[in-house]
Design brief:
The chain is of the alpha+beta class. It starts with a helix and ends in an 18-residue tail after the last helix.
Amino acid sequence: MFSALEDSPQISAGRSAVGALGTAVRQEERPSSDQPGVCMAVLDSALTIRQANQDFFRHFASPAAASVDVLDAPPSDSSASPPDVCGRSFRDLVHPSVRQPLMRQFERLVMGRRDRFAAHVVALRPTGDAFTGSLTASAVSGDGPDPAAVLVLMRSGESTEDDAVVAPRKKLLSEIDARILEGIAAGLSTVPLASRLYLSRQGVEYHVTRLLRKLKVPNRAALVSRAYAMGVLTVGTWPPRVVDDFIK
């Protein structure tokens, strides 16, 4: 069942680590992963995707490869070749707005500082469209002191307003608009913003009004909330920072 892990050069714990992973999936995670819509993937210590189930491929693989289920295929089934998402870094599937804090949690997991964590995630489909969901990552032990692999379970959210709001990575803002949005998110009023950016007060208000119209919100507080919901502002950093992908 877990032959892809045995073949991975990044995991040196050997066959016993594969057995430990199989036990972990069967005894702890497999019941929840059998529920419809639960994506499951096995990552090596570098967070490279080594195996996944069909729900995972349905969300992240190209359409031609989405019907394969590497986790459920027996080792003798040579027809179950890994789809294109296998071999990619899990980091690439995460929206830039949540990538940094999520990778910090994975780093602590791989270094053995914790056994598992749960987090909200904004992920990216092959088309670049984003969707929200919940993620649970668990360390799987091998023969050595460090985890041999990471088991990831993801459940995509129901169709909600937030899912609709999360934006693909498009160039939405000019450089000056991005700096003004960062300042507003940090709590700066018009005068400090004008001083920082060498603009007049009228110039700042002009750009703020454009931002309100562009994001279709009535005031500055709603502007910040919408920017976080869209993934334009990076989660978990201070001072607030606009994701580079959204700057023209």
